[in-house]
Amino acid sequence: MSAPCNVVVLISGSGSNLQALIDSLDEENPVRIRAVVSNRAEALGLQRAQAAGIETHVVQHRDFADRESFDAALMEIIDVHQPQLVVLAGFMRILTPGFVRHYQGRLLNIHPSLLPKYKGLDTHRRALEAGDHEHGCSVHFVTEELDGGPVAVQAVLRIGADEEIGALTERVHAAEHIIYPLAVRWFADGRLRLAEQGAMLDGDLLPPTGYLLRI
Q: Domain Formyl transferase N-terminal, which positions (predicted)?
């Protein structure tokens, strides 16, 4: 087993991806979730963390005059736990360049589209309206470009004929719960890392789409 990998998870809402990470933990998994931090005190994900015996913190963005001061307070709390990896799991804040640089190479996010398609919000509706035959989700390293960092892994789904947005949303969520724990485990095992040329897995440069998993 690899040496323990300290992880801090940032959330804003229900924390379903956090729960998937918690459920993936076992004696063979080196991931250790040291803390969960939310910018919303009412986030259900905080209860999920507490039920699993994980320390929680709330840093409410509205208590700060600007993004820089909020991010500085966030970093102060995160760094107490000395994480090798910071995981964004439905954290609905745009991070400052200073924050991103501070955690460069150890900051992962999950996005509900096959990046580089559909950066930003409302991705499922956009995929359906474009008539796409495939959709999915991407785990990527975070850079200063919004939803633009190198992709580690993507789950690819076929869009069914006349598929409704609700059904597609649920299928993508289920795929997220598969690939996020996978990518975090790869990082903890030392298999996944960010190099100057992009994301690397087992020493090989990944393509722009990352490792593809068809579900």
A: 6-184
**Domain count of the chain?**
2
> Is 67 annotated as ligand-binding?
yes
pLDDT in 10s for each residue of the chain, 215 residues = 678 999 999 999 999 999 999 999 999 999 999 999 999 999 999 999 999 999 999 999 999 999 999 999 999 999 999 999 999 999 999 999 999 999 999 999 999 999 999 999 999 999 999 999 999 999 999 999 888 999 999 999 999 999 999 999 999 999 999 999 999 999 999 999 999 999 999 999 999 999 999 99
124 is catalytic: no
Does 17 belong to an annotated binding site? yes
**Is residue 40 a known part of a binding site?**
no
Do 82 and 144 sit in the same domain of this protein?
Answer: no
Which segments within the chain are labelled E, that is strand?
Answer: 5-11, 31-38, 55-58, 85-88, 107-111, 134-141, 151-158, 192-195, 198-201, 204-205, 211-214
pTM of the model: 0.96
Q: Are residues 204 and 122 in the same domain?
A: yes
Give me the CATH number covering residue 187.
3.40.50.170
* Residue tagged active-site, from 61, 81, 102, 111: 111
Residue 116 and residue 83 in contact, taking contact as beta carbons nearer than 8 Å = no
Q: What is the distance in angstroms between the CA of the first residue and the CA of the last residue of the chain? A: 28
